[in-house]
Amino acid sequence: MNIKAWKFLLTTAVCAFSLTGCGMEPIAPDPTDFTTTASATSLQTTAATAAQTTAALPVTSDTTSSTFSTTMTTQTTLSTTVSTVPTTASTAATTKTTKQYDTGEGVTRTEKGIMIVNSGTDHPRALEIYQGNYALGNRFANAVNKWKKAMGSSVKVWCMVPPTSFSFYKPADYPDTGGSQLENFENIRDHLEDVTAVPIWYTLNAHKDEHIYSLTDYHWQPLGAYYAAGQFASLADVPFAQLDTYTSVTRDGYVGAFHWVNKVQEIRETGETFTYFKPDNLDQVTATYFNTSYKNGKTGTLIKEDFGINSSYQMFGGADNLILQVDTNVNNGRTLVIFKDSFGNALVPFLTHSFQKIVLCDFRFFDIDPIKMIKDVGATDMLFCINNSTLNSSKKIQQINDLVK
Q: What is the spatial distance between Cα 302 and Cα 133, in angstroms, rounded to a whole number?
């Protein structure tokens, strides 16, 4: 790919609104790029076209362990209180308003297959209804085990399954028709072989009253990714920078994909904030973007702060159809390769004090032998970061499995 083509790709990434990995595949442009006269039909057509072309001083690990260990001790207690998970998923509501569940503040309703809690207030929250089951989890665990066997003993393999916001914010009296995300994760964990699970559900649950998930988007907020990265760093025994060493930047008026893609109108007025965090070694890291064959690398910025307000989540790594390599100022000999969906993007800024090199790859946009690449970059660690919604898709699980021949 020539330089002109690369510039075009990185420029269009500013408008990319990636929903891949959240149970949704479309990539819609930043809505601020449309004129006010654009019709809903033209917006959908443009989004479909875009989808076709896609996408801190270090703290020692001892300190990190003390920060996150209190959450780990609650695992046994929490796991005994979760309701039994069904082995099959029922069909979610896909029509207009259905049964309303009392949240004590506004109501909860479903619209176009999306659940809206606190409807009728000034802070409604949209949720993607979860539909998972043990059988799909077993298939994913088997795929991960296949990767580990191919990598051999020289690479430590980790498995992180970010829950979706539905796991924490659905009404308590709403039935688990698609199973408990916690129990489905525990089922995956129990089927892993020589792979270490990263149980971030417990950590996130302890912080669910904070702004760890967006109200208007599928993804977690950067704060949620920070807590997950800390859990991972503690288990991996690498340094981890605490949040007060970062520079926080808040953007007001963020509206995510539940409005722009799913057309849920009520959340348009939510106007939530999007807060991201810049590591204090940002000017000492080099970010290089490659194509999906890990070739034609071009240097860029790790956090793309010029992206539009409604493309804020895409600041981390840009488009999903790129491979990002981050070389840091850490000299611990640890190289981390991440295979992820879009949830994995937000982890990287929180690991620049933890690993000497990080290579971020999206399993949906990868055209070479992953095992050879992992070995060629000298990986000491390999992390799967695949969110629970992605694992609702048999097709995507098969895609992960088939990358390793």
A: 36
Does residue 257 lie in a domain region? yes
Query: Residue 221 domain-assigned?
Result: yes
- The CA distances from residue 152 to 53, 125, 388, in Å, are 36, 44, 26
In 10 A of CB 59, how many CB atoms?
A: 18
Total tally of structural domains belonging to the chain: 1
User: Which residue in this structure is represented by tokens 């099959």?
Assistant: 88
Neighbours of 269 (CB within 10 A): 11
The string of pLDDT tens digits covering residues 202-250 is 999 999 999 999 999 999 999 999 999 999 999 999 999 999 999 999 9
Alpha-carbon distance of 6 to 28, in angstroms, equals: 20
Average pLDDT over residues 312-332: 95
Q: Element (H or E) spanning 137, and its range?
A: helix 134-151
- At residue 214's C-alpha, the angle toward residues 210 and 220, to 5°, is 80
CA dist 127 and 139 (Å) reads 25
What is the maximal distance between C-alpha atoms in the chain?
Answer: 58
DSSP state of 168: H
Residue 208 lies in a domain: yes
Cβ 226 vs Cβ 243: under 8 Å = yes
Q: What is the pLDDT of residues 335-370, one digit of tens each?
A: 999 999 999 999 999 999 999 999 999 999 999 999
Tokens 């649950």 sit at which residue? Answer: 205
Q: Identify whether the C-beta of residue 97 lies closer than 8 Å to the C-beta of residue 108.
A: no
**What is d(CA 201, CA 153) in angstroms, rounded to the nearest whole number?**
27
> What's residue 27's pLDDT?
31
Whole-number Å distance between alpha carbons of 162 and 142 = 18
Q: Decide if 117 is inside a domain.
A: no
Domain that holds residue 57: 47-89+131-402
- Residue among 259, 273, 271 at smallest CA distance from 211: 273
- Say which residues have a Cβ less than 8 Å from residue 105's Cβ, sequence separation at least 6: 118, 121
